[in-house]
Amino acid sequence: MALGRAFSVAVRGLDGHIVEIEADIASGLPGVYLVGLPDAALQESRERVRAAIHNCGNEWPQARLTLALSPAMLPKMGSVYDIALALAVLSASTKAGWARLEKTVLLGELALDGRVRPVKGVLPAVLAAKREGWPTVVVPVDNLAEAALVDGIDVRGVRTLGQLQLWLAGKAQLEESIDRPCSAPSPTADLADVIGQTQARYAVEVAAAGAHHLMLTGPPGVGKTMLAHRLPGLLPALDENEALEVTAIHSVAGLLSGGTPLITRPPFVAPHHTSTVAAMVGGGSGMARPGAVSRAHRGVLFLDECAEIAVSVMEALRTPLEDGEIRLARRDGVARYPARFQLVLAANPCPCAPADPRDCICPGQVKRRYLGKLSGPLLDRVDLAVEMHSERAGAYGQQEGESTAAVCERVATAREAAAERWRPHGIRTNAEVSGALLRKEFRLPATVMKPLSNALDGKQISMRGADRSLRVAWTLSDLAGRTSPVLEDVNTALSFRQNGGAR
Hints:
This protein is of the alpha/beta class. The protein contains 19 helices and 19 strands.
């Protein structure tokens, strides 16, 4: 009997778990037995590994071969285990004492000719290996730039199974980890391109400064989509931890570029209005994959024509909006993905949506049903609502509005003020402040709170709406350079909430 062993990583959501792979060659009829809750892709790895080992000049054991992946109760999915399986088999069949194999985590899919192909989820896998104290990780050379994002662990890139064998024997070198790559900021559309719409432009600035949710309503062509696309350009760049977190999500989703994988700018995700619940919040058989809400983490989720989106899809947003994460239970377990994004909704006032409201042919019942698909609990989570109108012809002759660069400076200053204020409480933006903290430690004078008190007494807003209006008031105060909101800030925040149907 001969026994070989290698190590890999199973990624569940964004969490990685070290997997020990054992190969046992025993007397008996030739056959391969794979145990340890493998999925279909992993079951097929038996044929890929067999062909790769044979085509690299090695002999496949003509005996009973058992491949065990531990821990046994952890579901194993995908082709990421291929090279670890191959090395466990080679170690058992050749009885080679590779000291490096015991200290190395192996990730990669095998082609039939022995080439090592890239896989998804390399970044969270390398982070898990570092957390568990492993000194070295070997990844496909095409994943090397992504793996190199993790400091404090030796990362090597491999091209073929034969090259990996020679490296284990000390007879060859693998690709060294390259300098930490960084994605260049992508060019953003300028806010100066938007004609007129002073109130809506200001609402976008407030949303950027406080990380607030925003809803824009109005006829086609008034600039709703243009403004939404310019919001990410107003947001500050991601810090190191945020960049790694966002990049890990896109790694699991298989959306990273090979050359510059690190995502340093807030993402902008705009799913089509026909998207399903699974596409929006995540899904899939086995272990759920990240959806649009997670891909928009630390960035902007833009839902254009939101009144056309299925009610079930819109209602699925309520939990991630409140919790900042999404938990998806599937057959192989629960996947947890962060989902702290800024929601931007855009809608026409009615299905026919003429440029001139006087030309509308929709009956009153149809109009009410159209925007009525957006439930009260969902709209209650929107901080700013703006109703936009068509600009007059004279607006075309006006000078351009402020540029993105000019507004960015005010947004950055306001965010710094908020971060400094909330730092003792572990909070960075006004949108994350709890209502209890606002009402107790940062309670405003009764004269300043009077508009909110009157709105609550008149049932014009809910208690949640009052808390959200207070958060907006603090953002308005930060933009104005004040240390705390004044009556004008509270009135303005309340007007933004009552403008477009939020309660």
